[in-house]
Amino acid sequence: MPLLHPEEQVFEAMLDGWRNQQLARNLAFSTIEGRENRVRAFARHGEAFPWRWTPQLADDWFSDLRAVRGNARSTLRSYQEALRSFCAYLIDPAYQWARECETRFGTHPIQVCHEWNTAVHVQEAEAEPAKRAFTIGELQAFFDHADEQVTAIRGKGRKGWLPAFRDAALLKTAYAFGLRRNETRMLDVVDFGRNPEGAEFGEHGVLYVRFGKAMKGSPPKRRSVLTVWPWSSEIIEQWVTEVRPLLAAEGNLALWPSERGPRVGLQRLNSRFVSYRDALGLDAGLDFHSLRRSYVTHLIEDGLDALFVQQQVGHEHASTTSIYTCVSSDFRTRTLRRVLDQTMTAALGQDRSIP
Q: Which three-class secondary structure state does DSSP give residue 322?
């Protein structure tokens, strides 16, 4: 039967079908929604429906994303992958969209993303060169500043000290266990356990991460992270037993509850981090993920085994962990000196260590 608004209705039907295809592949709802938003953004930019899209329209859009909006390389590639995937779905004979468009509009969709107008993913790390880990001094100043905000707010008699305390404890926990943003946000009180080999950590010797970064089409990846520093278990113990009960609603298991919802939001984590960083005059290369980079770096500098560090942060390959490692020049100098001394001692058969 004839459609009242054929172009709009066919486009929506295409998106619905594509969504179902991705759901069948077990992709996350957030991934599907993000891809759909990118396709809709391209349709608005080109002011055309999919059966009238051309590679030239795609080129103009990609140029706008880079030159005008200043999107990062990884962001641009995500837009291109979403558009490529949607076009691949439309031209697949199994879904018969080409025949439908020929019948209704006298033309058909084509693949507008090809090897000459899309970015190639050639290396594992795509972070901007400015992204880095904290130095020990910067990290201490950052955590001290977070603690000072709690004291200042509470000293004025304002109730905002509870969220400030939560965020200070959250930031320290993210560093203490090398967590990603969402891994930190999704922690529950019950995600801690005892480590038989680390009785000094009490009830917080192991952290069971249940919402790790997922592989495509797979559920969140789980891992267990052993507590390394004694101060981290002390912070969590104080938060859980003394402060959290003042903020969390009854029955809420979230480790980091929000004032208005079950758990703190990602945007709040970003805004709090940025406000503290900027207040200290630190550069923009430091972001929330820098806490994870710092964890890896500082463990390596403290002499912990690289395989242990890799397992702690949940990396599949050691090469990924090495990307996160931003050791200082002093550490590299000490490492080189130690190797040279060992080599000379072995060669000459005498102790040539530097006093």
A: helix
The C-alpha atoms of residue 236 and residue 188 are separated, in whole angstroms, by 12
Long-range contacts of 39-44 (CB under 8 A, 24+ apart): 39/15, 39/82, 39/83, 39/86, 40/15, 41/79, 42/79, 42/83, 43/11
Residues 227 and 177: their CA atoms lie apart, in Å, by 7
pLDDT bin (cut points 50, 70, 90) of residue 337 is low
Within its chain, how far is the Cα of 134 from the centroid?
17
Looking up tokens 């000094």, which residue turns up?
200
Which of 70-74, 218-222, 236-240, 324-328 tops mean pLDDT? 236-240
Average pLDDT (94-111) is: 95
Q: Bridge partners of 192?
A: 207
Q: For 297, what's the count of Cα atoms within 13 Å in the CB-facing half-sphere?
A: 23
Q: List strands edge to edge, sheet with 206-212.
A: 192-193, 206-212, 221-226
Cβ-Cβ contacts under 8 Å for 144 (sequence gap 6 or more): none
pLDDT surpassing 90 at residue 354:
no
C-alpha 94/C-alpha 75 separation (Å) is 30
Helix axes 6-24, 73-91, angle to 10 degrees: 100
Q: What pLDDT band is residue 353 in, cutting at 50, 70 and 90?
A: very low
The H or E element that residue 222 is part of is strand 221-226
Tens digit of pLDDT for each residue in 270-302? 999 999 999 999 999 899 999 999 999 999 888
| Percentages of the chain per state (helix, strand, coil), in multiples of 5 | 60, 5, 35
- Kindly report the average pLDDT of the chain as a whole number: 88
Q: Write down the pTM of the prediction.
A: 0.77
More reliable by pLDDT, 298 or 1:
298
| Three-state SS at 101 | helix
Q: Which residues of 126-147 are buried (b: 16+ CB within 10 A; e: fewer)?
A: ebeeebbbbeeebbebbbebbe
Beta bridge partners of 208: 224
Non-local CB neighbours of 230 within 8 Å, separated by 6+ positions: 200, 201
